[in-house]
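Quarterly update, task 2.4: adenosine-5'-diphosphate-bound model.
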Amino acid sequence: MKQYRMALDQGTTSSRCIIFDRTGNIVSLAAHEFTQHFPNEGWVEHDAEEIFSTQLTAAREALAKAGLSATDIACIGITNQRETTVVWDRETGRAICPAIVWQCRRTAARCDELRAQGYAQAIRDKTGLPIDAYFSATKLEWILSHVEGARARAVRGELLFGTVDTYLIWRLTGGRVHATDPSNAARTMLFNIHTLAWDTELLELFDIPACMLPEVKPSAGLFGTTDAALLGAPIPITGVAGDQQAALFGQCCFEAGSVKNTYGTGGFLLMNTGERAITSQNGLLTTIGWQIGDKVTYVLEGSVFVCGAAIQWLRDGLGLLSSSAESEAVAKSVPDTAGVYFVPALTGLGAPYWDPYARGTVVGISRGTTRAHLVRATLEAMAFQTADVLAAMREDAQASIPALRVDGGASANDLLLSMQSDLLGIPVQRPACIETTALGAANLAGLAIGLYRDLDEIRALTRTERTFSPSVGHAVRKKRLADWHRAVERARHWVTE
Ligand code: ADP
């Protein structure tokens, strides 16, 4: 059997391709950034053609770097930026307008209107999501209403909709396959996560013709085979998952109660809740992790808007650091923050507070406060925010969480991870392969073709590089969290319009 797997990791700022061997070692990696378009205040767009061409180039380069040809590749796994909405012409495969990116706020007013009309509960019950402009439904509705002739053409079956996974599958298979997986479908706000079907009432509400929607297939299984002309030989696409869910899978969070956090620009916590779709009482959302065979795994998800971005702000906004990595040495130069707390609510607060009016706040400054204290308080804030989301998960799931697995750029920071372990009172585990998103997609794809017998075999191949264990007791933890929460209160409801 062929041993190599190709992961296409189509992110918000770059298209990457990683080739893994059977045991999960990286054989080669290639990445291409692409253009971000900001045509209006709060709008974010991508060119779907550029997404596809950079992805294809990355795949070709990764093959070349590895000295492999397409015939050496057993399967492809796709993971992608979620919610971003593409509408294209079935005949030509060309998008009819720019892709509307998940970050784009153009439909925020429409979402306010839907909430005012009382749709929030029904939409949450069906989709697990709060009404928000992030999700695809209002973006697709916008395209159908604003691009001339689009709705009529869609009704005639001439146009197709997809999230980025679906668009890549369509283009890679030469327009033969129109499909997605439940982890991506669950982010559209059109998919019923309990019945696993597109919801006819929601399609009616947003006036979306059902004929433009992709078929939803299990996350591990045959989606289609790439057009031979693209990479030199046909390769089966056998794994698909949205980026955060792929990272959860790549972290081997296979059992209910396992949790991962990605410390990137923002922070993304996902908890596997097994076969139970848990409705959060604490501002988390309910979504699908993956489907293998007919078994669906649900997750709770919470995001922190500003995580590593707070370090970026110290570096670029204040000029306190020359690099993000320097934050560790600077913070270590003092034993603690000397009572300083920084609430990095630079763009409001996400889960579990959901306060768009909160703003960044530093409290506890005294004559002795130095740059090092502020840098240390910033790292600590990343850990505090994560602890808040984890506490919400614990409460919603009524489960104890044995450990936290971590990845993302800032997970390279050892001090951050020890602080995190102290605040949670549980071990924090950093995997040897921090490319968990791509690895997750490759593992789903490998599972589908029988490269692994089962999840246990995948787990056996995965190594933890380092485990951080708590070094403080319960009383210290409780006091620190209480002080942090006092600081959060001072940051909340700041902007009054
Ligand atoms: P994304 O994929 O969200 O763009 P990454 O996962 O690459 O981000 O993480 C980058 C973020 O992590 C940046 O905000 C950066 O400031 C932060 N970061 C990177 N290295 C470190 C470090 N050693 N310590 C603290 N923060 C870091």
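Highlight for this quarter: The longest strand covers residues 295-304.
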